[in-house]
Design a protein that fits this description.
Blueprint (H helix, E strand, L loop, with lengths): L6 E7 L3 E8 L5 E8 L6 H11 L7 E6 L7 E3 L6 E3 H7 L4 E6 H8 L8 E3 L11 E6 L3 E9 L2 E7 L11 H14 L10 H14 L9 H10 L3 H25 L5 E4 L7 H4 L4 H6 L5 H5 L3 E4 L4 H15 L2
Parallel strand pairs: 1-4, 4-7, 9-12, 12-13
Antiparallel strand pairs: 1-2, 2-3, 5-6, 8-13, 9-10, 10-11
Helix pairs in contact: 3-11, 4-5, 5-7, 6-7
C-alpha cells in the first residue's frame, strides 16, 4: 500500500459554480475553499490551475473532482455547461500524480460514512445499521440519486440516474400535477417535481388546482414565503414537495434494502428543514403497502453538512490511494 500524501485538492463542479479546497487526507479537514463562476474559465483545467496558483498549491499532485454529469470513461462532458475534457490529458497537462473524476452524487454518497452527528438531522423513526447499504438523493438544480455499499472496510458507490425514472401520483392532487407536467414534458420523472424548477412547477400546478390566481415565483421566493408562513400556497407547495420526496426516498429504500439509512442531500431540503418535520415525508416513506413495516425500520436523515461533495471526493480519493 502506497503512503498517503498529507494533502490533496478536491473540487465540486456544478453547472454554475466550481468549488475547490485543500483537504487533509488524514482528518478530512477542508481549508482554502474557493468558489469560482464556471463561466470565468474556458476549461476546467484552467480553473484548477488558477486555484493552485492563487493559493500557492502547485506542489500538491493529487486531485479528486466531483462533477455534475455522468462519468463513464476518459472523456467527460458536462450536462449543463460547455466544459468537455479528457481525464488523462488534464492529468498530464497539470502534471498530477493522481486525478480521479467522479459523478457529483458518487461524491455525496461517499461522504455519508464521514458525516458527524451534527451534520445530519433524523426525520422520523428507524435506526441506521452499520455495514449495510445506504441511499442518498438530493434535490437542487436536478435530482441526484446514488447508493453506497460497505464492503470489507471499503465503500463502493453506485451512481445512477434514478431522478429520471417514472414518477407515480398517489392522490387526486398529484394526479392533477402529473397531468399538467405530462402535457408540458411527456414523461414525468421525480426530477420534474423534486428540484428547483420542480418547486416552481408544483406552485403553478397547485394554483391551478385550487383555482387561485398566482404570479409565478422563483424556487427561492417560494421557499422564503413558505418558511415565513406568509403564503398558504407556498406552504402547500413545500408540503407537496416533501410528500413526493418521501415516496421517492421510500422507493430507494426498497430497491436496495438500505438499512444503513436513506439520506436527503442537495440544496433545497436543508433550507426547508424547519418544515420537514410537519410534512408527510416520513409517512409517505413508510406508506409501501405490505412492506410498510419493512421501511419503518429504516432511518431517514437530512444532510446538513456544508460541503458534502468536497468531503465525499476526499473520501473517494483517500480510498483509491490507500488501495494502490
Amino acid at each position: 500500500m502506497a503512503k498517503l500524501p498529507t494533502h490533496a485538492i478536491v473540487a465540486d463542479i456544478g453547472g454554475t459554480n466550481a468549488r475547490f479546497s485543500r483537504v487533509n487526507l488524514t482528518s478530512l479537514a477542508l481549508d482554502q475553499i474557493a468558489v469560482y463562476p464556471c463561466a470565468e474559465f474556458a476549461t476546467l483545467a484552467d480553473a484548477l490551475a488558477h486555484y493552485r496558483q492563487q493559493h500557492q498549491l502547485t506542489g500538491i499532485k493529487h486531485v479528486a473532482i466531483a462533477i455534475a454529469c455522468p462519468v463513464n470513461g476518459d472523456e467527460v462532458s458536462m450536462t449543463n455547461f460547455h466544459w468537455h475534457f479528457s481525464v488523462r490529458a488534464m492529468q498530464q497537462q497539470l502534471d498530477l500524480e493522481a486525478l480521479q473524476v467522479i459523478n457529483d452524487f458518487t461524491a455525496v454518497a461517499m461522504c455519508l460514512p464521514a458525516l458527524s452527528a451534527t451534520e445530519k438531522v433524523q426525520l422520523g423513526g428507524g435506526e441506521a445499521q452499520p455495514g449495510l447499504p445506504m441511499a442518498v438523493l438530493g434535490a437542487g438544480t436536478g435530482l441526484g440519486v446514488a447508493h453506497l455499499l460497505p464492503v470489507n472496510d471499503q465503500f463502493i458507490p453506485l451512481p445512477g440516474e434514478g431522478g429520471h425514472v417514472d414518477w407515480a401520483a398517489q392522490n387526486e392532487q398529484e394526479w392533477f400535477i402529473q397531468q399538467m407536467l405530462a402535457k408540458e414534458y411527456g414523461h414525468v420523472s421525480p426530477e420534474r417535481l423534486l428540484s428547483g424548477p420542480g418547486l416552481e412547477a408544483i406552485y403553478k400546478a397547485l394554483a391551478l388546482y385550487r383555482r387561485q390566481v398566482a404570479e409565478p415565483l422563483s424556487a427561492a421566493a417560494i421557499a422564503q414565503q413558505a418558511l415565513s408562513g406568509e403564503s398558504a400556497l407556498a406552504t402547500a407547495t413545500v408540503q407537496q414537495f416533501f410528500a413526493a420526496l418521501g415516496s421517492v426516498a421510500g422507493n430507494l429504500a426498497l430497491t436496495l434494502s438500505t438499512f444503513g439509512g436513506v439520506y436527503v442531500a442537495g440544496g433545497i431540503a436543508p433550507k426547508l428543514l424547519p418544515l420537514a418535520g410537519q410534512s408527510e415525508f416520513r409517512a409517505r416513506f413508510e406508506a409501501k403497502g405490505r412492506f410498510s413495516a419493512f421501511n419503518r425500520r429504516i432511518a431517514t436523515y437530512v444532510v446538513t453538512a456544508e460541503q458534502p461533495g468536497l468531503v465525499g471526493a476526499a473520501v473517494y480519493l483517500k480510498q483509491f490511494l490507500a488501495s494502490k
